[in-house]
Write a structure and sequence with these properties.
The chain is mostly helical and 403 residues long. It is 67% helix and 2% strand. The longest helix is centred in the middle third of the chain and has 36 residues, at 127-162.
């Protein structure tokens, strides 16, 4: 039922984007995307976390951030293996790694978990208790997922779409001109500016360095690697890492775990409850709006592209076969050694974090850079079509597994 609800709203979004109606046109989707990014998602994360997360629950759920991090590490490793097998073009490396690593940790849980709790004869106990615990798990997953997504995947796609390698050979000496990677996203432009300069230093040591015309020397390979890594670290976009959704999550967690703040904003007698109520109203619009936008963007996946079928099949295999199997092993080991407390709903959420389709925000990131948008739509169409079957099967198995 939860997955069916998502599919219905997604179908409505695709229907509204049809050229015959053109309600969610390309320009409308870009404006709606900006509203989601700057307003709705931060409000959703903040409003849910203020009401569901406390210091005690945060301590009890300490394993969840590590579990989500494991989904990223395993996903990136499997994505790298997929790139080697299918020989993914270099300009698509970021997209493939991002789709393999980042699952839809946010709105998917906020739809699935409450719906499971409200089902008649729910396996996870009383509706009120299940819903309260489930929303705490879902909201923390949303917060941590936002932080990881905009820290790792954003920069992976940014570097992949903006890196330039021009290899100039002069008298058998090779110079990699990667000394500066500058991307201007202050205005969130769709065409990032990328510049690269030739690395050159004076040969003072004379140890195994080729001298180029004009007295310039090739930088040793080790120094080049250090220089490139230093440049990447220096050029990490802190504005993206501290995205609006991440800031909303941090504010929500802070209000939730600090009792004086919680008394100010949460509850019928809170003096500033109108602020929290307003954030809740805005946040309530985030999930249906995101799902409508997903349906509209999926139409682009019907367009022809040079993307190989093997890449799409590989991403589906990673997300719906390899990752869930690894997730079962990790959660089973954590339970066996007493790392996580015995709560079937909590274990179910931890397991499901390994079986989710790619994060919808990957489409937002590709649109910000104007890179691989069509390919991203194709991947989203394929993975979310398969999700209706894969999520149902894995959810059924996970429920049987934890109970």
């Amino acid at each position: 039922m939860p997955i069916l609800k998502l599919l219905i709203i997604t179908a409505v979004g695709a229907f509204l984007a049809l050229q015959r109606f053109n309600i969610l046109s390309m320009s409308a989707r870009k404006h709606l995307n900006a509203i989601i990014y700057f307003v709705l998602c931060p409000a959703l994360a903040c409003s849910i976390l203020t009401k569901t997360i406390t210091f005690r629950s945060l301590v009890m759920l300490w394993f969840m951030p590590l579990n989500i991090l494991m989904t990223y590490i395993v996903g990136i490793a499997l994505g790298w293996l997929l790139m080697k097998i299918t020989k993914v073009p270099s300009d698509m490396h970021g997209l493939v790694l991002g789709c393999c690593a980042a699952g839809n940790q946010g709105n998917m849980f906020l739809v699935i978990v409450p719906a499971i709790c409200k089902e008649s004869g729910s396996l996870f106990g009383a509706v009120d208790v299940c819903n309260e615990k489930g929303m705490a798990y879902a909201s923390l997953s949303l917060a941590i997922g936002n932080i990881y997504l905009w820290t790792f995947v954003y920069n992976i796609i940014r570097i992949s779409s903006g890196r330039i390698f021009n290899v100039n050979k002069v008298d058998d000496c090779t110079v990699d001109p990667v000394s500066a990677i500058e991307i201007d996203l202050d205005n969130h432009s769709t065409g990032p500016m990328v510049t690269a300069e030739v690395v050159s230093e004076t040969n003072d040591s004379g140890n195994n360095e080729c001298t180029l015309p004009g007295g310039r020397a090739k930088v040793p390979e080790q120094k080049q690697v250090v220089k490139i890594l230093r440049t990447i670290v220096e050029k990490l976009n802190l504005k993206a890492i501290l995205s609006p959704a991440t800031m909303g999550s941090i504010i929500g967690i802070t209000i939730g775990i600090v009792p004086p703040f919680q008394k100010m904003f949460v509850g019928n007698n809170a003096p500033l409850r109108v602020v929290e109520d307003s954030a809740s109203m805005l946040g309530a619009a985030a999930i249906p709006t995101l799902t409508l936008l997903l349906g509209a963007n999926l139409l682009n996946g019907l367009k022809r592209s040079g993307m190989k079928l093997s890449i799409i099949v590989g991403i589906i295999t990673v997300r719906y076969i390899a990752l869930p199997i690894v997730g079962v092993a990790i959660v089973t080991a954590a339970t066996h050694f007493g790392i996580i407390h015995h709560d079937p709903l909590y274990q179910f959420v931890l397991l499901l974090q390994f079986a989710l389709p790619p994060a919808v925000s990957i489409s937002t990131i590709t649109q910000l850079f104007g890179a691989n948008e069509a390919e991203c739509s194709i991947v989203m169409l394929a993975t979310y079509t398969c999700a209706s079957f894969a999520l149902t099967l894995w959810s059924t198995f996970f429920m049987w597994f934890v109970l």
